[in-house]
């Protein structure tokens, strides 16, 4: 049986020393490469209404992870409204109303979707990336002052292509036990 983490988070936040309370403000700050990293970005839209976010809990541990995010956002009273949709990896395609919600909101929190195993079956994860033209994942990794870690002064950007190669679904078994993945490029 799972307990709600909301009371635990509220208790932790209420006992936070004043000099650390700024870490728990309802403000999102994610530095992007080449941007001004000193200015926090407010999650509240221009007119003061909460930001709508499309939520796809997904399969496996996805519902647990996205549920925990919902609890944390609720505990810190983040100005976010989730539009929840049930999408699962065994579906043939992502429903149109889900795609419309993602395009309208421009923000989506998605748990993992199971990828069916078998020849010629496309993953809904890859279909979603292709439909939204999300062909690359960019992650900015950097050290935070005052946080002791194994490595110091880390500042690296990891760029990973995530629709071609192994993700393209163009594999076939040449001989038993030998699988070949094709990469198709357009010029």
Mean model confidence by pLDDT: 76
How would a crystallographer describe the biggest sheet? 3 strands, parallel
Helix content class: 10-25%
Low-confidence stretches: 19-34, 37-41
Helix-strand topology string: HEHEHEHEEEE
Portion of residues in beta strands equals 15-25%
Backbone shape:
globular
Description:
The structure is a single chain. This protein has 187 residues and is of the alpha/beta class. Helices cover 22% and strands 20% of the residues. It contains 4 helices and 7 strands; from the N terminus they run αβαβαβαββββ. The strands form 3 sheets. It has a 3-stranded parallel β-sheet. A two-stranded antiparallel sheet has the order 4-5. A hairpin with a 2-residue loop joins strand 6 (171-175) and strand 7. The longest helix has 14 residues, at 62-75.
SSE topology sketch:
Layout: H1 6-14, E1 51-56, H2 62-75, E2 80-84, H3 96-105, E3 108-110, H4 124-131, E4 136-142, E5 155-161, E6 171-175, E7 178-181
Parallel strand pairs: 1-2, 1-3
Antiparallel strand pairs: 4-5, 6-7
Helix pairs in contact: 1-2
List the defining traits of the structure above:
globular, 187 residues, alpha/beta, two-stranded antiparallel sheet, 7 strands, 4 helices
């Amino acid at each position: 049986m799972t307990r709600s983490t909301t009371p635990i988070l509220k208790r932790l936040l209420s006992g936070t020393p004043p000099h650390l309370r700024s870490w728990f403000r309802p403000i999102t700050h994610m530095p992007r490469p080449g941007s001004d990293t000193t200015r926090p970005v407010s999650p509240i839209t221009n007119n003061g209404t909460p930001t709508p976010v499309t939520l796809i809990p997904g399969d496996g541990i996805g519902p647990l992870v996205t549920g925990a995010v919902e609890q944390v956002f609720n505990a810190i009273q983040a100005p976010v409204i989730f539009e929840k949709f049930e999408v699962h990896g065994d579906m043939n395609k992502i429903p149109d109303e889900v795609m419309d919600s993602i395009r309208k909101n421009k923000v989506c929190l998605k748990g993992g979707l199971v990828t069916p195993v078998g020849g010629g079956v496309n993953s809904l994860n890859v279909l979603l990336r292709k439909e939204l033209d999300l062909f690359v994942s960019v992650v900015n990794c950097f050290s935070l002052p005052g946080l002791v870690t194994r490595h110091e002064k880390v500042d690296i950007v990891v760029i990973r292509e995530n629709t071609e190669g192994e993700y393209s679904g163009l594999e076939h078994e040449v001989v038993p036990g030998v699988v070949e993945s094709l990469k198709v490029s357009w010029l």
